[in-house]
Amino acid sequence: MPMDGGLLYSLGRVLWVVKKGDRLFGKVLDGYPYFQEVDLSGGSSICTCPKGGDCEHVEAVLEAFRRGFYFECAGIEAPEACAIEMLESVPELGLRTVLLELKAKLESDESGSESARLFLEALELAEKTGDPSVIAKIEALFEEYALTFPDYQLTERLKSRIELTKRRLMKG
Ligand SMILES: [Zn+2]
């Protein structure tokens, strides 16, 4: 069954939406990460999925916008840079986004590098939340990583980094 925009949104696949003037920019995970640009005044859209626009991803971005899940960015910086800045200022939201990306990345990451970067980002944000319960989510994803890259020294190092964050969070 093909997904529609509302479903993608409710499954949490919309990573972020940025509004700049009359335009919306978005990033939606649907197997791959796809990027959208929607002109609110003219109604035209473009998406990096094979359909190229007027697709379920654009619908999902519009659904997020209607529900108020978007950041207003006025500056000249790129939409993704602005989204990341906003997400980092709300660690719970940022962590949710990074974990979604990490989950998707683990399915296709051949070198382990990009996943490792996302683990480090997740740990950083986890410490900012101050909530020890978030570590379990990171550990669950790390188990998958450790199975895929069992002989990497990196895997050992990431494991120690996770332990360190855990101890810091437990101390409060
Ligand atoms: Zn699309």
Radius of gyration from the alpha-carbon trace, in angstroms: 17 Å
Task: Give start-end ranges of low-pLDDT stretches.
Answer: none
Structural class based on helices, strands and sheet pairing: alpha+beta
Listing every helix as H and every strand as E from the N terminus to the C terminus, the arrangement reads: HEEEEHEHHHHH
Structural domains: how many: 2
Estimated share of beta-strand residues: 15-25%
Range of helix content: 40-55%
Mean pLDDT: 94
Number of helices: 7
- Biggest sheet: strands, sense, closure? 5 strands, mixed
Could you give the distance between the termini? 45 Å
Ligand identities = zinc ion
> What's the shape?
globular
Strand order of the largest sheet: 4-3-2-1-5
Number of strand segments: 5
Overview of the molecule:
The chain is an alpha+beta fold and 172 residues long. The protein has 2 domains: 5-76, no CATH class; 90-171, no CATH class. It has 7 helices and 5 strands, in the order H-E-E-E-E-H-E-H-H-H-H-H. It has helices at residues 5-10, 56-66, 79-89, 91-106, 113-129, 135-148, 153-171, and strands at 14-20, 23-30, 32-39, 45-47, 71-72. The chain has a 5-stranded mixed β-sheet with strand order 4-3-2-1-5, sandwiched between helices. Helix 4 packs parallel to helix 6 and helix 5 (113-129) runs antiparallel to helix 6 (135-148). It is globular and about 50 Å long. The model has no long low-confidence stretch (mean pLDDT 94). The structure holds zinc ion. Zinc ion binds at residues 34, 47, 49, 51, 55, 57.
